Amino acid sequence: xxxxxxxxxxxxxxxxxxxxxxxxxxxxxxxxxxxxxxxxxxxxxxxxxxxxxxxxxxxxxxxxxxxxxxxxxxxxxxxxxxxxxxxxxxxxxxxxxxxxxxxxxxxxxxxxxxxxxxxxxxxxxxxxxxxxxxxxxxxxxxxxxxxxxxxxxxxxxxxxxxxxxxxxxxxxxxxxxxxxxxxxxxxxxxxxxxxxxxxxxxxxxxxxx
Length: 209
Known about the structure:
The chain has nine helices and six strands, in the order βαααααβαββαβαβα. It is an alpha/beta fold.
């Protein structure tokens, strides 16, 4: 069996990534959203807008985009209640169950979290690197590309359709639908007000249950 999790809002109580480097630059979620609104007319998708905003904020604050800066706070991520105990439980026995994170967030950041040691694979957005410097996005993991990643995970595991996908928002809609259609299970995590609103919207448009 394969268990696949979104990260922000699914394993954590926050629908948006809580990157410490942004908070140190004076950006909480509200200010970040306002900044994204300023850039919204220049870029096609919210994924492009978010990362351009992220890069702009660091540049404005003269913070180099190094792995050390990008991954600040990763080891102190706040998880939903029981998440760490849940992953520890699966390490007790040889269950044959494999765990993966598939996130639109930064892959390097999740790799530095305390739960990464319990995961069989982590897939996220990645940057081209020049030594320690992150220069530009080379893979932006969006909602449709999540399905491609799930397919590659299936292939790694002999093509099995024994898949459960956990997500919390609109960006998980394609993954929910794909997993449902192959006979797997899709589980919507209601961790905050935003996820409740997303559930209601997806529930009215898609057959993913």
